[in-house]
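note to self: dont lose this again. the chain is below, predicted strucutre after it. 480 aa total, dont forget to put it in the shared folder this time
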Amino acid sequence: MQKIFRKCKDAYSSMNVIAKASLWFILLTVFDRAVSLLTQPFINHILSVEEVGLFGIYQSWHSIFAVVATFKLSSGVLEVYITKNKEDSYNVMGSLSILSSLICLAFFALSVIFIIPLSELLSLKPIYIILMFVQIIGDSLISFWTTKKQFDYAYKEYCYVTGILFLIKSVACVFLCYAMERDRLLGRLLGLSLPAIAFGIVLFALYIRKCDFLRVKEYWKPAVLFNIPLIPHYLSTVLLSSSDKVMIEKLADVESAGLYTLAYSFSSLTLVVFGAINSAYNPFSMRAIKEKNYRVLASTTRVMMLFSMMFAAILTYLAPEGLYILGGGKREYLQALPIVPVLIMGIFLSSFYFVFSNIEFVHEKTKYIFPVTLAGALLNIGLNYLLIPSLGYEVAAYTTFIGYVFISVCHYWISRRLIKEDVYEIKYILLYLLGFMLLSSGALLVYKIHFMLRYILVASLMGLAVWYGWKNKETLFKKK
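---
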């Protein structure tokens, strides 16, 4: 046992800072999802299917307003400015966080003035809309801090703070959802919004002290000019990923939205690995593109990509148990099982296409991003509008997948035009994607066979992941 511990310790010590950060981001995300998996069954058991559907609609509108009301200044523009102005990063962060908060407060004031018609339009109670803006402001302030820590690879501070926040949110949601019998959904929203604003204010106070207040407006104009072409892109991205639930509620019913919401919630667990790795991969990718270190970029991208696919495939084959547990033991949620493989493939692609669009960010060719994302979103919305009334809510999973395939192809084509060479060695990526899609689609047949076959496939995929990790240990563990 001591030898195993020593070998693990030596392997960890030999990792470069990117690998260590990636490992801890993965562990933190696993912790977050583990806590979520422990608490969501209780919440979904307490809430009705219709209330789960309303929560999905709330999440969709929250995603839309989070873009419009903050200009998404804690995302791409912050990452680019920190990369280019590393020594001035705190002034960048302070300047943009203040601007983002002021914009959000202005939208919040307008929402309060027009709260009644807005409530009718969104199909949400006025108090839900108020809490939505409270959560948006808090999440935005937290996001500025976490982005800075990710770029610094300060994984210890990042994990401590976000881990505690995850735990508090989860416990608060369960307790308040159970305690508030008259409006249990309100309890869940309070559990999300109050910890977010509390942590956001504290973190904002910590990093704003390191800023030069005389320069607080310095980055406002260039940041707004940089992000104006991106806001429609971010909004289109949100519409592509979130409009399904709203359209299902409008074109079908709230119960169908509830089934889709839970299936989507389970499927989004595919981001546990890819999302965590991307937290470390994204800064590395931008630096590699900037330095034209394409060989290392291609090999690292393939390794990270295949690990993500393996986890996504494992999750696909565990979907029957996952839906039953996440649904609080309600078998009615198993109706959504056939759409899980398609949702997982679509959600994976929603993260993967950023591999190509990073080239556009680094070369500051953001004008290409919006038209592509808008076209993908309109394609998804149009197909949903035509097909949901006749084919049911299930078709929304397929339209989302089609939208992300379209966007991925377009961004790859644009990246080739900008750099004029195949920096990612696309033939390997296409081969991986084809295998992933065949494996995921095969789950639709395997679901109907004995459960032991699924477990054998899961064990085989886990073994393959270990073998691939050992084979590529130099990429993962070599010193920086």
